[in-house]
Amino acid sequence: MNLTSDQQIFWQHGFITINGTIVTTWAMMLLMAIGAKLVTRRLATEGPISRWQGALEIIIGGIEKQIADVGLSEPKRYLSFLGTLFLFVATCSVCIVIPGYKPPTGSLSTTAALALCVFIAVPLFGIREQGLGGYLKTYTQPTFIMLPFNIISELSRTLALAVRLFGNMMSGVMIVGILLTITPFIFPIVMTALGLLTGMVQAYIFSILAAVYIAAATQVSKPKPEPGKKSQH
Questions:
Q1: What is the pTM of this model?
Q2: pLDDT (tens digit, 9 = 90+) per residue, 155-181?
Q3: In angstroms, rounded to a whole number, what is the distance separating the alpha carbons of residues 56 and 35?
Q4: Strand, coil or helix: what is 76?
Q5: What is the dihedral of CA 127, 132, 135, 138, to 10 degrees?
Q6: Which of 49, 5, 1 minimizes the C-alpha distance to 170?
Q7: Under a CB-based contact definition with an 8 Å cutoff, are residues 200 and 93 in contact?
Q8: Contact assessment for residue 210 and residue 111, using Cβ atoms and an 8 Å cutoff
Q9: What are the contacts of 76-84 at 24+ separation with CB within 8 A?
Q10: Disulfide: which of 20, 82, 136, 179 matches 187 by Cβ 3.0-4.6 Å?
Q11: Euclidean distance between CA atoms 73 and 105, whole angstroms
């Protein structure tokens, strides 16, 4: 039994391999692109709106609220990146209802790529908000001695993002596979529903953690008041 989509080989020539992870990842991206195009082709700014537009506005509004709750003052700046992360992981999880489908997020290569996107986006957002010098100073806070530890923390949390998502998605696939082998006629519906719930939770956690990292990188440090002077309110 293939537990991950990496083990599904569709074509191979030398060191070039097209496996299930690549195919399902591109399929999910294509599905999201076509879905976005169909939903947004007839947007209405006034009067009655379609059910699809209503659902889209609810999703976008919910994502914006979560971004604002994390501490990012202008959620729309980060909506495209964080919203795409959430919707991609969520879409990969929702599609587990398709027979024979294995989510690409159950592969470490996919989760590592998503974590790498966050790793690159965090300093980019930080530099845009604080400038290069201001962002680099965050690595020496509260003291210069913390520089190596802050760098290690930056790298380790990226690894933790990838491994956390991979571990949770992979464990869910393994549990479903074991239970379906033992009791194939009792648990399929229940475990599929549980898998959907787990996938949505992981999509939420992944995007929220990314938002937290970006919020920490874009937070402008306020200058300390001079000794003997009181802050004016």
A1: 0.79
A2: 888 888 888 888 777 766 666 666 666
A3: 11
A4: helix
A5: 170
A6: 5
A7: yes
A8: no
A9: 77/125, 78/125, 78/211, 78/214, 81/121, 81/210, 82/207, 82/210, 82/211, 82/214, 83/207
A10: 179
A11: 30
